Amino acid sequence: MNYKHTRFFLSLTLGLGLGLAGSASAQADEFTNADLEQWQQDFTWTVKKGDKLFHSPLGSNTVSCDQCHPNAADTHPETYPKFQKQLGRVATLGDMINWCIQNPAQGKPMSLDDPRMIALEAYITYERRGVPLAPGKH
Asked: What's CA 117's distance to the chain center, in Å?
């Protein structure tokens, strides 16, 4: 578990404990405009990092994601999870990203909580923003 996740869970646990003890605690939906601005900056930075990764080789050859999927076209993140014939099972978007890294790009898979994986997923889903969710669709 990374530092941000640990800090979140500690804060959540402490907040729940204080709430159960009858003390006043902050509600999960309490945040400031400064919080929103920071969160948007963090998200935008992550999407930009994903854009750079998507357009760079991720394996031992020179194959990059954009060679098969220009601007994340034909990735359809809105349809995951779904059955993927290549894997023979229901897969997440991260599973398919790893399949592409291992096969066309001839690279090593990333853990699903790797910041690079999160950035790739952020970029891919950002490129498809506005498309309705359709899990399982082919």
From this structure: 6
Whether residue 128 contacts residue 76, with contact meaning beta carbons closer than 8 Å, is answered with yes
Residue-level pLDDT, tens digit, the chain, 138 residues: 555 554 444 444 444 444 444 445 556 778 999 999 999 999 999 999 999 999 999 999 999 999 999 989 899 999 999 999 999 999 999 999 999 999 999 999 999 999 999 999 999 999 999 999 999 999
Among candidates 110, 97, 113, which has minimal Cα distance to 64? 97
Q: For each of the domains in the chain, give its residue range(s) and CATH number, in order of start.
A: 52-129+134-138 (1.10.760.10)
Q: At what angle do helices 93-102 and 115-127 cross, to 10 degrees?
A: 110
Find the angle CA(76)-CA(52)-CA(87) to the nearest 5 degrees.
Answer: 40
Whole-model pTM over 0.85: no
